[in-house]
Design brief:
Elements (H helix, E strand, L loop, with lengths): L2 H19 L8 H8 L3 H8 L7 H10 L6 H12 L2 E3 H4 L4 H13 L3 E6 L10 H15 L5 H11 L9 E7 H5 L5 H14 L5 E6 L13 E4 L3 E5 L3 E5 L2 H16 L2 E2 H14 L4
Helix pairs in contact: 1-5, 2-3, 4-5, 7-9, 8-9, 11-13
């Protein structure tokens, strides 16, 4: 969890404690507040000590139980402020992958130049529909999310229109390991690699592959996107990180540039993809 995020959560917890202690009904103990709310006392403790992220409903209930409902807008604003940077999958996927993909569409269509480091799977802007469906189904199982793969695939395919708009540029570096990742049946992976072979040389795409035997300047880590040097989106198991401070964006661009030094492009990249494609044994 990021230091900035944890600090913001702790500050919110301190504010919650203030509201409890300064209740117009008289100083409330954590146990008394928990009884009013019908919560376990441990939840009150975790929220006050920044060990749990409250929901908006939690904040509303807290302010009402503490006799200070006027403080709710302030607390909600604080929550929205730091959660805009840490977007938990649990909350994002409550309604399925479709709405998440529509949010991504808005961000992508508002960008002109995108730099992507792909360490585990094919970039969504270049996925085939069948490959994308496999990805969504795997993650729906993992996150216990609603299974709305059809809606999610349609949204992701719509996003690929961005590649054919004038003035757009995708700079994609992939680790070769992502090409081997068997997240789908062999025939779907083969078609996906054929798709990658076809985009090498597109005017709007610069595709580089870091071969498995290439020296790695850093650990591959998780994949990330840099949007116009104004926003970084990095994915972790528990959440997406949306990072917009200049120093962090510059760091991710340095990481991308460093991996690009180990990548091959053009016909050399095609040769790597073709080698993986030939290894796939189709039924």
């Amino acid at each position: 969890m990021s230091t900035d995020y944890q600090r913001a959560r702790e500050e919110l917890g301190r504010r919650l404690r203030e509201l409890r202690v300064e209740s117009p009904d008289g100083r409330l103990t954590g146990t008394e507040l928990a009884l009013r709310l019908g919560w376990q006392q441990s939840k009150v403790s975790k929220l006050e000590n920044g060990r749990q992220t409250p929901t908006s409903d939690d904040l509303r209930a807290w302010t009402e139980a503490a006799g200070q409902p006027a403080a709710f807008p302030e607390l909600r604003s604080r929550l929205q402020g730091f959660e805009s940077h840490i977007r938990s999958w649990r909350r994002q996927l409550a309604a399925g992958h479709g709405p998440v993909q529509e949010t991504w569409n808005t961000v992508v269509f508002n960008s002109d130049t995108i730099h992507v480091w792909g360490s585990a799977s094919v970039c969504g802007l270049l996925q085939t529909a069948d490959y994308a469906r496999c990805v969504f189904e795997r993650y729906a199982d993992l996150q216990n999310a609603p299974r709305d793969a059809d809606d999610a695939v349609r949204a992701r395919m719509k996003r690929q229109e961005w590649l054919y708009r004038q003035g757009k540029r995708l700079n994609l570096i992939m680790w070769e390991a992502a090409l081997w990742s068997r997240v789908c049946p062999p025939e779907i992976l083969a078609a996906q690699l054929d798709r990658l072979l076809g985009v090498v040389g597109m005017d709007t795409v610069r595709l580089g592959i870091v071969p498995l035997d290439a020296p790695l300047p850093a650990f591959p880590g998780n994949g990330f996107w840099v949007m116009d040097d104004r926003l970084v989106i990095a994915e972790d198991w528990h959440a997406e990180l949306w990072l917009d401070d200049a120093e962090t964006i510059a760091l991710y661009r340095r990481v991308w540039d460093t991996f690009a030094e180990s990548a091959v492009f053009g016909t050399d990249a095609q040769q790597v993809i073709a080698r993986v494609r030939r290894s796939i044994k189709l039924p």
